[in-house]
Specification:
This protein folds into two domains: 201 residues, Alpha-Beta Complex (Spore Coat Polysaccharide Biosynthesis Protein SpsA, Chain A); 100 residues. Helices cover 47% and strands 18% of the residues. Strands 1, 2, 3, 4, 5, 6, 7, 8 and 9 form a nine-stranded mixed β-sheet that branches. Strand 6 and strand 7 form a beta hairpin. The relative contact order is 0.11.
């Protein structure tokens, strides 16, 4: 057992001048000391580079700049140049708890059959770090494919894995702007990857108030639907029946229809509903909402967003 393997922490950064310092400091504060920090600046046009200049001068980080390629592109770049035996991912607006790397390295060194180690996560509202929120997610270990198709529960910043594992299973798919992590988990699970869960929050995720939530939600749901349609093409007819995959895709279509409704795009909402050929009460409910007057629909959308947030966190 290598008691002190090098760990490469990859931090994709895109216009994160407000957050990047906290993220880097959370890695520097790790109880595990054999770490290299690789910041991949994915085409930032703000002062991200200026904020991290002090870390560069002290040789505390490795800094790479590239034209904007999205989260997947930034992660792929960082992992390819990583020198560590192990790799951890950290989004630039989130934070590691001090013992995260130490505990995950110890776990993987003791459980050689695990490909990916992940952990529980706490949340905090941007600007209110003192108020910790818990999620309602359920977590699983082993081959998690059958659980992932019903909902994504692995935050990429909770992961620790061997770089060799990444080389075996392949890179993140850069064609997806959203849900690229879910696409990766589904793909590697189909290839037999084993995920191991540590039942302890070792990571702190920032909940940001996004002004473009509505349009971003459409992009997210459309990406997820495409991911599932791609996955279906890789499944045998027996597996499609075993996983009730057609039902899964219909559920994804309903979520996309709801996303269009939230975005007040009634036409696209109804077009998606037309592609669902089975009777569904939720489908009827969404259709009825789509014919409401615009003023009432707006009020409903605001309440729905509040309910969604309160459901995810407590």
């Amino acid at each position: 057992m290598n008691k002190n393997p090098l760990v490469s922490v990859i931090i994709p950064a895109y216009n994160v001048e407000k957050y990047i310092e906290e993220a880097i400091n959370s890695v520097l504060a790790q109880t595990y000391l054999n770490i290299e920090i690789i910041v991949v600046d994915d085409g930032s046009v703000d002062s991200t580079k200026k904020v991290i200049d002090n870390y560069l001068k002290k040789n505390q980080i490795i800094y790479l700049f590239q034209d904007n390629r999205g989260l997947s592109g930034a992660r792929n770049t960082g992992i390819k140049v990583a020198r560590g035996e192990y790799v951890a991912l950290l989004d630039a607006d989130d934070l590691f708890f001090p013992t995260k790397i130490e505990k995950q390295v110890l776990f993987l060194e003791s459980n050689k059959d695990c490909d990916f180690c992940y952990c529980d996560v706490d949340f905090f509202i941007d600007g209110k770090p003192e108020k910790i929120l818990k999620s309602h997610y359920k977590y699983y270990s082993g081959n998690i494919f059958k659980y992932l198709i019903n909902g994504s529960f692995v935050n990429p910043s909770t992961l620790l894995f061997k770089k060799q594992t990444f080389n075996i299973f392949g890179a993140f798919d850069e064609s997806f702007e959203r849900a690229e992590d879910l696409e990766y988990y589904l793909r590697v699970s189909l290839l037999g990857a084993k995920f191991c869960f540590i039942n302890e929050p070792l990571f702190l995720s920032r909940v940001r108030k996004l002004g473009n939530f509505q349009s971003d939600y459409v992009l997210m749901q459309s990406s997820i639907l495409k991911i599932f349609e791609n996955i279906k093409l890789k499944l045998s007819s027996e597996k499609i029946k075993e996983y009730f995959f057609d039902n899964i895709i219909n559920k994804r279509k309903l979520k996309l229809a709801l996303a269009y409704l939230i975005n007040e795009d009634k036409k696209s909402c109804r077009n998606i509903l037309k592609t669902i050929q089975v009777f569904n009460l939720f489908k009827i409910a969404i259709y009825l909402l789509s014919i409401l007057p615009k003023s009432i629909l707006k009020s409903f959308v605001k309440k729905l967003i509040i309910i969604k947030r309160s459901f995810l966190y407590k």
